[in-house]
Amino acid sequence: MRICAYCADIVGMRRQAEGLAAAVAALAGGETARASAKNSAFNKLLPRPASFFVAPVLPRPDILIACGSAAVAGALRARREGVFTVFVQKPPLAPHYFGAVVCGEHDNLSGANVLTVAGAVGGVSAETLARRKQRAEEKFAALPRLRTALILGGNNRAYSLTPALCRRILAELRAAAGGGAILATVSRRTGKECRRILAQEPPANFFYGGDGDDGNDGNGNDTPSLTSPSPMGVFNPPPISDGGGGGGAAAENFICGDAPPHPPPSKMGGGLIAPPKMEDGSDDYGEYLDILAAADRIVVTCDSVNMISEACASGKPVYILPLTVANAAAAKKFADFHRNIIARGFARMWAGEFCDWQNAALNETERAARFVCEGYRRARDTMSAR
Q1: Span 18-64, pLDDT tens digits
Q2: Residue 218 and residue 382: Cα distance in Å, rounded?
Q3: Sequence-separated (6 or more) residues with CB below 8 Å from residue 86
Q4: Domains of the chain
Q5: How far, in Å, CA of 329 to CA of 38, rounded?
């Protein structure tokens, strides 16, 4: 079985699509690949193939896991060619355009083919962090326990993180941690001034490094800036059934297949095939995972569903740091997510002091993988019966 993760080249989306693809492969047996969905001038120059997949070099996957609006058109065309398509996050179209949809409970979406999850799916789990624990302990051996991971986000359409608030957060955590160490990491949305404040923090019992998030607004939206409109905002194709016709989705830069042993740098707008890289210890993400693995507790800002979900997947006490509300309407969805994750016992709101507790690890990725496998088997049996 081939499972392909398909999304724009945005870190947060890649984590969700690749994490679910890897979980499906582990559950059902199979190999994974990654393909990039990217709206670019180069893609418009590509010839439109008779088929969405070019065999044997780029073989057709059995399951396509798409994430983000840039991947919608490609997912629709793949479904027309008989591929079982899964959309992660709330899609801009009705759920029946896809074989299955996996989205947050706070998205308030329902349907026979919809699974709602408490947090974002991804590649972080208690097992992932356990595999990194020894190397993480060696890296931070000089820093005393109890260690607190601080995962800072930044400005988005719902919240703002000012330098003054950043200083206050650091002061509160220093006081609450006592002599324990703080391991800080940031999002790509964290402002330069806040990064400078972290870099200038006295080094005693303090570590700073490693990006934690993807640079989007933390709400599952794949717009790189807050003013960019969704490319699928006015797209409304007719309903499509598995293996059926319909739809006029344009061909995109879609490449899916087995990665060569030593792939060259991509010259196709991010469309190079590669197996999911969930634990590359040489990059910022690897350091971020080490921080999660070495921490005894995690404090994370309220502005990212991804970052909070990954923190809760650790099975460690998680405290959600409130930020300044910039837009009450936009913050409502986040607030719904916070209430749900807190009610389930995975996290608590930060109130200025630590009161650690034992809690189970959030593991929605495994549940989503089972849902995808069941949907795939039903679709395959239906096609066989025709």
Answers
A1: 999 999 999 998 888 888 876 533 334 334 544 445 433 346 889 99
A2: 37
A3: 20, 63, 64, 65, 66, 98, 99, 100, 101, 102, 372, 375
A4: 2-122+227-278+366-385 (no CATH), 126-219+279-362 (3.40.50)
A5: 29
